[in-house]
């Protein structure tokens, strides 16, 4: 009975990738956002939106007291390869982690990106006001009744930038992987890198966040490296809080 379930899940992912790569010319990618809810229902996850339209799809961890580790991607952006590769990496990593027990929740976090902006993440980071977001992007007012963006916390943010050709390769045949961002997350990645992989963290390299560690993992094999980082960092966070008890 497991095989039909697996087939249904991957068909859903293909559908999501198709919708993500064909956004409307402006505004929100409503067809894609709606399909995400169908994906949630078929995978027994939790769906939530904040008041700037960011979408949080969470798979429960074994310790409800710990904040989620998030795999991030742009929701409403153009069909450019970097944006699409970010969603491809995030959804495939999340899909693999659905079969893995972790202490922390795993979150597939889509940032609102109308007009190719970074407004969803900027409001989440508190570097841009909600009022300004509503003024510049009136379509975001549709989410005014949702929970406040400040209520959604994460233990870490991971950007998994996957070459779309990677999913056609055999497992273990991936090439170079580049890791940039938090030194802590970069160290977690080292044990999963291929021989020609590189870690360059600290000193202002890579993405930053004011709320939690963040790392960008790019290249062939990025999904495998990202999955390993999530599992190891989840154990790290759990042990860290155990020491506080």
Unreliable residue runs: 1-11, 166-174
Please give the radius of gyration in angstroms: 17 Å
Can you summarize the main beta sheet?
Answer: 8 strands, mixed
Label the overall shape: globular
* Biggest sheet strand line-up: 1-2-4-3-5-8-6-7
Task: Give the rounded overall mean pLDDT.
Answer: 87
Number of strands: 8
Q: What sequence of helices (H) and strands (E) makes up the elements? A: HHEEEHEHHEEHEEH
Helix content: 25-40%
Count of separate DSSP helical elements = 7
Strand content: 15-25%
Distance between the termini: 43 Å
Q: What class, by secondary structure content?
A: alpha/beta
Write the layout of secondary structure elements.
Elements lengths: L1 H19 L9 H14 L2 E4 L5 E5 L8 E7 L6 H17 L8 E6 L7 H6 L5 H7 L17 E8 L15 E5 L1 H8 L7 E4 L12 E6 L2 H23 L1
Parallel strand pairs: 3-4, 3-5, 5-8, 6-7
Antiparallel strand pairs: 1-2, 2-4, 6-8
Quick tags:
single chain, alpha/beta, eight-stranded mixed β-sheet, globular, 7 helices, 18% strand, disordered N terminus, 245 residues
Task: Describe this structure as you would to a colleague.
The chain has helices at 2-20, 30-43, 81-97, 119-124, 130-136, 183-190, 222-244, and strands at residues 46-49, 55-59, 68-74, 106-111, 154-161, 177-181, 198-201, 214-219. It has an eight-stranded mixed sheet with strand order 1-2-4-3-5-8-6-7. With 245 residues, the protein is of the alpha/beta class. The model is unreliable at 1-11 and 166-174 (pLDDT under 50). 38% of the residues lie in helices and 18% in strands. The longest helix has 23 residues, at 222-244.
